[in-house]
Amino acid sequence: MLLSLLSLTLFTTCDVEDEPYLEEIGKHNPPGPEEKVRKILLEEFTGHLCVNCPEGIKLANDLKIQYGEQLILMTIHAGTFAVPENEGLYTADYRTATGTDIHDFFNAQFYPSAMINRSECNGQVTMFTGLWQQAIDALIELPPDAFITISNQFNEGTRELASEIEVEILNNLSGDYNMAFYIIESGIISAQKNDDASVGDVPDIVDFEHKHMLRGAYLGAWGTPLISGGALAGETHSTNFTLIMEEEWKEENCALITVFYDAQSREIIQAEEKGIVE
Question: Closest Cα to residue 8, out of 77, 74, 79?
Answer without folding.
Answer: 79
